[in-house]
Write a structure and sequence with these properties.
Oligomer: heterodimer
Radius of gyration of chain A: 19 Å
Mean pLDDT of chain A: 87
Number of helices of chain A: 8
Helix content of chain B: over 70%
Number of strands of chain A: 2
Number of helices of chain B: 5
Distance between the termini of chain B: 76 Å
Mean pLDDT of chain B: 87
Structural class of chain A: mainly alpha
Strand content of chain B: under 5%
Distance between the termini of chain A: 35 Å
Helix content of chain A: 55-70%
Radius of gyration of chain B: 24 Å
Order of helices and strands of chain B: HHHHH
Low-confidence stretches of chain A: 1-9, 14-19
Chain lengths: 205, 99
């Protein structure tokens, strides 16, 4: 994880070796839970956008982790394995919920003419992110629009750009090839750019 | 080039982008991710930046694309402040582990 801004306990503890988790020992179990609960909640909240659902997802994820620890093969790092469980659990919760408004990716990708030239609406005005972020409503709008991205793309954008995982880590967590992660990330960003255009052009939403 | 219609401009670009060391906007699109991750070879980077100099549409597109990434990153930090340690959840997890 590249993000150094958070305090301990909010990022997966990469050195949390299996030997240090003893499920027969209450203190060891509690330490393991405390070391990991915040980053797991943060990740689940980003996917679900809801505190209660995120807590449910994390609780179920811990159950899966405890059950799986004994047979964990160490083919990926413990951190990546735990990430995969949390992400999958959050995605399951998401699918159980009522469908939100979600675009199809093709509607949001850039358009080119027969010569391969970009068809882009003129940018008469452009508001920088710095200016936009000074407004209280911006973060809410951005969050809402990220939520409208198709799930397969949104999850890659969340893990790569917001959780700041590497391409290789995202590929492992989502069990995709790195090439596939890159394609999805680029499309997710292009789609988000399209959805953010009215905001960036300074138009009323 | 002022006064030329957008379609004419695109047609001109269409011809120009077929010249050596030139790429179309569509090819440019495929390089954006690697460019931002600084993964292009020096020659690819030269070709990419040459296109960027010549093509206003791609320049503006890339500016908005980068702005979208920044808004996603910085917007998110503000909307998801760190929570306090959720004691209830920790207790529930530990209780469940004992079963």
């Amino acid at each position: 994880m590249k993000n150094q801004k958070d305090s301990p306990g909010t990022e997966p503890s990469s050195n949390q070796g299996l030997s240090s988790v003893d499920l027969q020992d209450d203190k060891s179990t509690e330490k393991f839970v405390r070391d990991n609960v915040l980053w797991m909640l943060k990740t689940a909240r980003r996917i679900l956008g809801d505190d209660g659902l995120a807590e449910d997802a994390v609780q179920t994820a811990f159950g899966s982790i405890f059950r799986g620890l004994a047979s964990f093969q160490g083919r990926s790092s413990l951190k990546t394995w735990m990430y995969r469980i949390v992400v999958n659990e959050a995605l399951m919760q998401l699918r159980k919920r009522e469908r939100r408004r979600e675009w199809s990716i093709d509607e949001l990708l850039p358009v080119f003419d027969d010569n391969g030239c970009r068809i882009e609406q003129d940018w008469a005005s452009f508001e920088t992110p710095e200016i936009l972020l000074q407004r209280s409503e911006t973060k809410e709008v951005v969050s809402e629009l990220i939520g409208q991205l198709p799930e397969n793309y949104r999850i890659v954008l969340l893990l790569r750009d917001i959780e700041e995982m590497s391409t290789a880590e995202v590929a492992e967590v989502l069990e995709l090839s790195e090439a596939n992660v890159k394609v999805r990330l680029h499309r997710a960003r292009a789609a988000l750019k399209k959805l953010l255009e009215p905001l960036l052009r300074g138009e009323q939403l | 080039m002022m006064g030329l219609g957008k379609t004419t401009m695109r047609r001109l670009h269409g011809v120009m982008f077929k010249l050596p060391y030139m790429i179309t906007c569509e090819a440019f699109e495929d390089f954006i991710l690697a460019y931002l991750d600084d993964e292009l070879s020096p020659k690819q980077k030269f070709v990419f930046e040459m296109h960027l100099k010549l093509c206003r549409e791609c320049r503006e597109y890339l500016r908005a694309y980068r702005a979208a990434i920044q808004l996603a990153k910085d917007g998110d930090e503000q909307i998801h402040p760190l929570q306090d340690v959720p004691e209830d959840l920790i207790k529930a997890v530990i209780d469940a582990s004992r079963r």
